[in-house]
Amino acid sequence: MYQECGHYYLCQLKLAWLDATSNSAIAFAYNLIPIIVVYSARKRQDLPFQWIYRLITTLAVIGITIYLIEAWMFWRSQYWLLGLFKAITAFGLLCAMILLVRSLPKVLTIPNLTELKQANHQLELEIKERHFAEEALRESKERFHNAFDHAAIGMALVGLNGSWLQVNHSLCEIVGYSEAELLSKTCQEITHPDDLDTDFEYVRQLLTGEIRCYHMEKRYIHKLGHVVWIMLSVSLVCDIHGQPLYFITQIQDITERKRVEQTLQQQAYIFENISDGVIVTDLSGRVIDWNRAAEKMFGYSKAEVLGKNLGILHKPEESAVLTQKIIDELHTANRWAGEINFVRKDGTEGVCETVFVPLYNEHGQPTATIGVNRNITERKQAEAALQQANEQLTSWVQQLEQRNHEIALLSQMSDILQACLTVEEAYKVIAQLIQPLFPETSGGVFIISSSKHLIEAVTTWGDSTLASKKVFSPKNCWALRRGRSHFSTTDDHSLHCSHIEEDLFGGEALCVPMMAQGEALGMLHFHSPQTGQLTAAKQQLASAVAERIALALANLRLTEALQQQSIRDPLTGLFNRRYLEESLEREISRAERSHKRVGIIMMDVDHFKSFNDRFGHEAGDIVLRELGGFLRKQIRKADIACRYGGEEIMLILPETSLDVCQERAERIRQTVKHLDIQYQRQKLGCISLSLGIAMYPEHGLTGTAVIEAADAALYIAKKTGRDRVVMAQSQVSVY
């Protein structure tokens, strides 16, 4: 009943298959153990002692292998392989025992199930608390963000370098920037330059731990460019290690408050510096406040009147009535205005113009009164004086009207005198202009001669006979001698001027010197047969007339002198070359229209250079000066003598024939030799002239052509021996 089967001998076959089947089933069961352990270990990575699971898995795999080998041994006898795996299994188990023994203290420390339940319960509580804390933190953050974003004041998170990290809508409205624009800027860029240093100092103290927060008033620059005043509150946020993270800032717009403060300061300044006295009282009349002007007006200092009744400023008999009158008016019309007689601290009285108005609280109820007092004492005194002077002013008005009329006439006289072209023309109009200013007088304008030895009447006015001589010495007039107006009457005690004829004098006389630029030009003489005509006002008017006449005459003389200087040669006294050219063109144009001739004589002093070399240039100037005077005597009034240049002189002879021109040139040539010229008491000898003659239109149709022809003839006269007259050669046909 037993047979060999593999390595087994003497075994029953049915029982051998049973053993193999059971070993395979055990191997399959062992195989499930490592699979479950590996799956559990992978799912629970947090379990402790992961190496135990790996050890169990390894031993289970070895056990599976042993049972499979035993099953295999039914067919193949591999004892060495089975012994090897059993040895490995024994060694593994031994190592596992050693490791388990060493790990036993750690394993014993693992909490038991009760402790795990308690720990789990505690963990659940902590998780709930953490959840509650996280929810509270979320709500806190949400509340912060809601408060941050919707705050009525500006709020911002600012970096340590001043950059904006987060801003709310209110801050954007304050500075005028959008959120994106503001985040691209820094605090420093919108801060007023004058506030930067103070802000930086506070930030430094905040970063160094000297202060925990700071508050300051500063200015931002609005996007539109204007200044925005803000109240800035800043605190520093740090991490858990105390390192600064960023700043939390609160910005409140206080521009309106600043404006109100400035207005209050201005009002306080006005209150203290206004010229009117301002008094503030309560409803019972006790003084609450008053300004410096009130102190000056009433004589009491503020400390002396605070809390006292306003009646101390008025007379006792008037105080009660006046106070009641003011109160009644304030109740009905909310305003009282009028004049009040007041008494100063020193007892003196005055008058002030006062306005009282009530002051109301926020509920619209009157709490005090304010009175503005203007001191009109001086004005009242002035009104009294003005009333007293009113009658006198009425009479002055008439005099003023007369004076205005005289000023108008005086202005008219000045305008006409300024329009005069010559002194002679001014003499003619002066009499007509003075007569309306002094209708009841006669007189004249007297001018001092160029020699300063005589003064002569150049014009007179008036119906009565002039009481003064018309020609006399300036020494005979007290006005000219004293340099001021001299008034005289027929009174025996009056000092009369010597030029007044006593048999013709009656009434009163006035002599007014005419001064211009510190020099006496003459004198105005006025005579009235009746006294009382030459009043003080008339004497002032006469001085003004004399001043204007003197100024006008001086200007005319200066104009004539300047005109002569502009057209005259200063050495010879003859006309200069510019005047020559203008005159020649004018005379040629006139001759062309009237078909007349114009003669030109150009002359030159012979040997003038050697004359200068021998006697000197001053002697040469004397020769030219004497020659100029000689020629002025030789020519007609219509002729024009000009210095052409150097020692060359030209004569223009209008409407002159060729023969007459030649005859006059010859006479000049011969007569000039008789001049007796001396220099430093030494005779210089006689001079001779070379002359060239040219005629218009025979020798030229233009002034330049005629001059060139005369100059050519003069050149020929010099070349042919000098001291002669040469006629120019004809160039054009005569019409």
TrEMBL record:
The keyword Transmembrane applies. It is a multi-pass membrane protein. Pfam families: ETR1_N (PF25487), GAF_3 (PF13492), GGDEF (PF00990), PAS_3 (PF08447), PAS_9 (PF13426). Keywords: Coiled coil, Copper, Endoplasmic reticulum, Ethylene signaling pathway, Membrane, Transmembrane, Transmembrane helix, Two-component regulatory system. One of its GO terms (cellular component) is plasma membrane. PROSITE patterns: GGDEF (PS50887), PAC (PS50113), PAS (PS50112). Residues 214-266, 336-388 form the PAC domain. SMART domains: GAF (SM00065), GGDEF (SM00267), PAC (SM00086), PAS (SM00091). Residues 140-210, 263-333 form the PAS domain. The chain crosses the membrane at residues 20-39, 51-73, 79-101. Residues 116-143, 372-406 form a coiled coil. It is found in: Endoplasmic reticulum membrane. It comes from the Bacteria. Its main location: endoplasmic reticulum. GO terms for molecular function: diguanylate cyclase activity. GO terms for biological process: cell adhesion involved in single-species biofilm formation; negative regulation of bacterial-type flagellum-dependent cell motility. Residues 596-730 form the GGDEF domain. Belongs to the ethylene receptor family. This is Diguanylate cyclase with PAS/PAC and GAF sensors. It comes from Fischerella thermalis JSC-11.
